[in-house]
């Protein structure tokens, strides 16, 4: 009996030891004292005040913030609540929306590295329905449709210069066509697949001729389908196999598994009484340029419905820790924790200005790379980040940046829509992380 008992104890010990191996080998979330990474503990501690004050002012319900330098976490805290009476935790799951785009860009560039396509290939080579696209052109009597001067290319999609829009912008003619063809912006329960949606999207007009403007749009949803065509894999499976598993991103997915739903943060909106209200019903966009409206939030899309539409531009859910692993891979030029996802030169290529003279609508000191905004002129930028930093955000108030000069990554996650009442929080957070630098080179 004693030998059996010892055997059982040894078995339990071995099981526990094996279960800890991935954690022991995972160097992506090691925490250190900020000073060892050349950052000020005192300055970083002031970030607490930014978020605590915002919560007290009913600007946000809760927040998770994470800062790293040279693969070492120097700040990782949770504030407030993720849901009514449920404290925010570091492992809270968030709808990261457009922070899905950098992930899709990486997937596309993996295939590019392998010689599967050329950036200036016409899209119709892979999705034939885009062979005969039209453009909505303003005329004396409103708008007319004319044949596109040139084909949409993969490069156009990666840089948002294809002329494809979002329905919630309410572009004249285009928004109505999106509505009539049941084009999803990615924030609602969507039937069918991205392959079927792309066929319908190809019937809708562009807002300008490919290459002749910059319009934030559904380009990365189309790129998700492009990855499926090239790889022969469903898009969710491709990301899981080629990016999420190698980087140990165990809490990143298009749809939140039932066993993890309790960790999903609720989405809030500013209320008429100055207090935040939980969003528990569908919200339609106002249609900025026309009366056409589209669904910009459905409280059930994260876990309900057929779960067959994988929005490469807005559909992912993730945690602060998982997204930090992804960012560290980028800062390390395509490698993290001994796993290479992209070549170094590919990351350099992606994170430079790829949009030519088209600057971002909201920041004239920034251009667009492949999946990121890139600071190209800090002297006129509205951002506190130095040149060559790259960044992006999600519509429900998530953000990240990667400062290549100082090798800093900083990301912040909350769930608020619209976020006009909290518009100053992310810039304050970014400025404070830059202020914390006490040694420029570590």
Question: How many separate helices?
Answer: 12
The gyration radius over C-alpha positions equals 22 Å
- Main sheet attributes: strand count, strand direction, barrel closure: 9 strands, mixed
> Tally of extended strands?
19
Structural class: alpha+beta
Shape annotation: globular
Share of residues in helices: 25-40%
Mean pLDDT: 93
Are there runs of 5+ residues with pLDDT below 50, and where? 11-25
First-to-last CA distance = 58 Å
Q: How big a fraction of the residues is strand?
A: 15-25%
Description:
There is one protein chain. By secondary structure, the protein is an alpha+beta fold. The chain has twelve helices and 19 strands. Strands 1, 2, 3, 4, 15, 16, 17, 18 and 19 form a nine-stranded mixed beta sheet that branches. It is globular and about 60 Å long.
Defining key terms:
442 residues; alpha+beta; nine-stranded mixed β-sheet; two-stranded antiparallel sheet; 29% helix; globular
Could you provide a short overview of the structure?
The chain is α+β, with helices and mostly antiparallel strands and 442 residues long.
What is the element layout, followed by pairings?
Elements: H1 2-25, E1 30-31, H2 41-45, H3 47-56, E2 62-69, E3 72-83, E4 86-87, E5 94-95, H4 101-113, E6 134-139, E7 142-147, H5 154-159, H6 174-180, H7 194-201, H8 219-231, H9 235-244, E8 268-270, E9 276-278, E10 283-284, E11 295-297, E12 317-318, H10 320-331, E13 335-336, E14 339-340, H11 344-350, E15 366-368, E16 373-375, E17 390-394, E18 398-403, E19 408-413, H12 425-435
Parallel strand pairs: 1-3
Antiparallel strand pairs: 2-3, 2-19, 3-4, 5-12, 6-7, 8-9, 10-11, 13-14, 15-16, 16-17, 17-18, 18-19
Helix pairs in contact: 3-12, 4-8
């Amino acid at each position: 009996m004693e030998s059996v008992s010892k055997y059982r104890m040894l078995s339990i010990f071995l099981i526990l030891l094996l279960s800890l191996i991935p954690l022991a080998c995972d160097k992506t979330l090691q925490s250190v004292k900020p000073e060892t990474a050349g950052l000020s503990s005192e300055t970083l501690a002031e970030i607490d005040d930014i978020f605590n004050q915002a919560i007290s002012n009913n600007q946000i319900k809760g927040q998770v913030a994470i800062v790293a330098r040279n693969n070492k976490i120097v700040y990782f805290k949770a504030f407030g609540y993720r849901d009514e009476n449920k404290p925010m935790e570091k492992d809270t799951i968030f709808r990261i929306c457009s922070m899905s785009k950098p992930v899709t860009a990486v997937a596309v560039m993996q295939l590019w590295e392998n010689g599967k396509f050329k950036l200036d290939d016409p899209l119709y080579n892979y999705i034939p329905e885009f062979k005969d696209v039209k453009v909505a052109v303003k005329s004396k009597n409103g708008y007319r449709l004319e044949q596109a001067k040139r084909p949409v290319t993969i490069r156009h999609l990666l840089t948002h210069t294809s002329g494809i829009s979002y329905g919630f912008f309410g572009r004249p003619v285009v928004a109505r066509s999106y509505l009539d063809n049941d084009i999803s912006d990615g924030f609602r329960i969507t039937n069918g697949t991205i392959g079927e949606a792309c066929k319908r999207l190809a019937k809708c007009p562009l807002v300008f001729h490919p290459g002749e403007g910059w319009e934030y749009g559904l380009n990365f949803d189309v790129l998700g389908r492009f990855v499926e065509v090239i790889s022969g894999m469903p898009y969710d499976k491709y990301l899981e196999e080629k990016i999420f598993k190698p980087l140990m991103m165990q809490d990143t997915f298009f749809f939140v598994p039932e066993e993890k739903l309790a960790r999903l943060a609720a989405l809030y909106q500013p209320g008429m009484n100055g207090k935040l209200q939980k969003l528990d019903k569908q919200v339609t966009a106002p249609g900025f340029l026309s009366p056409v409206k589209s669904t910009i939030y459905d409280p059930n899309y994260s876990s309900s419905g057929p779960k067959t539409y994988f929005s490469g531009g807005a559909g992912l859910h993730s945690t602060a820790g998982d997204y930090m692993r992804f960012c560290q891979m980028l800062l390390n030029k395509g490698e993290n924790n001994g796993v290479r996802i992209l070549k170094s030169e590919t990351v350099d290529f992606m994170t430079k200005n790829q949009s030519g003279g088209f600057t971002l609508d909201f920041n004239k000191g920034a251009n667009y790379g492949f999946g990121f905004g890139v600071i190209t002129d800090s002297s006129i930028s509205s951002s506190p980040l130095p040149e060559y930093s790259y960044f992006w955000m999600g519509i429900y108030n998530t953000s990240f940046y990667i400062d290549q000069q100082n090798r800093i990554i900083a990301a912040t996650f909350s769930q608020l829509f619209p976020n006009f009442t909290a518009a100053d929080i992310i810039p304050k957070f970014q400025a404070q992380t830059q202020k914390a630098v006490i040694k420029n080179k570590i």
